[in-house]
Amino acid sequence: MDLGIKGKRGLVCAASKGLGRGCAMALAEAGVDLVINARGAEALEATAADLRKFGVKVTAVAADITTDAGRDKVLAAAGVVDILVTNAGGPPPGVWSDWTREDFIKALDANMLTPIALMKALLPGMIDRGWGRVINITSQSVKAPIAQLGLSNAARTGLTGYVAGTARQVAPFGVTINNLLPGIHATDRADALDKAVVAQKGISIEAARTEREATIPARRYGTPAEFGAACAFLCSQHSGFIVGQNILLDGGATNATL
Question: Distance of CA 258 to CAs 20, 28, 247, Å?
């Protein structure tokens, strides 16, 4: 399927690895010129080199997108942006009694306030041009909270509430905002969560993964490539009637009707 976005310009955050990289690869394959961001310059440049194999223009900006200085640097390099994919690593797992106010502030900065700041910066231009796509990578925990990920539950649900209203305000101008809610995928984040289980239960990493896979109806972890393909479709010309939605990509792990 031709997604109809060849020649558009996109900004993908946390694009050097995992789900962000999967989204960047799918958009590049669709012909989107990209600005990609992550904190680690080496991995980011390696990803940029792979993206350029699709024949698109790629600008790599190493910066911490969760800081004012980092966002200013990325936005200055990005210029006109038609497609925004927000993404940031999730806060560490833990226990409710251990989290401090500072822990919550860090989580909110990374997983709620940074995406909001990027949208506020880029939505006006999209509205003026009469077309735009925003995809926020959140989490399945928005639909069904995960006890040990309380920091993520709180921050990402806050972002979801913001998007619910904002998406409907910008839709009349040809701009859509939607959220993708990943379950467990084969990424560094999955490795970190599995290692936490290893430490807690004293089992092998293979046993931890097998145990988690058993909770997923698809009986496997998702892949960054299939996640990226879903993202690219939501960024396409065919998705203009999809507004303010929270779409699960979790292999059926969230046991809910709606």
Answer: 26, 32, 11
Q: How far apart are the first and last CA of the chain?
A: 28
Query: Quick one: which of 85, 90, 86 has its CA closest to 114?
Result: 86
Give pLDDT tens digits for 103-153.
Answer: 999 999 999 999 999 999 999 999 999 999 999 999 999 999 989 889 999
Strand partners, 102: none
Which SS3 state, helix, strand or coil, does residue 141 take?
Answer: helix
Cβ burial of 42 (10 Å; 0-12, 13-18, 19+) is exposed
Nearest by Cα to 250 from 231, 222, 214:
222
Report yes or no: 90 and 159 within 8 Å, Cβ to Cβ. Answer: no
pTM exceeds cut of 0.90: yes
Long-range contact set of residues 49-54: C-beta below 8 Å, sequence gap at least 24? 50/25, 51/24, 51/25, 54/28, 54/29
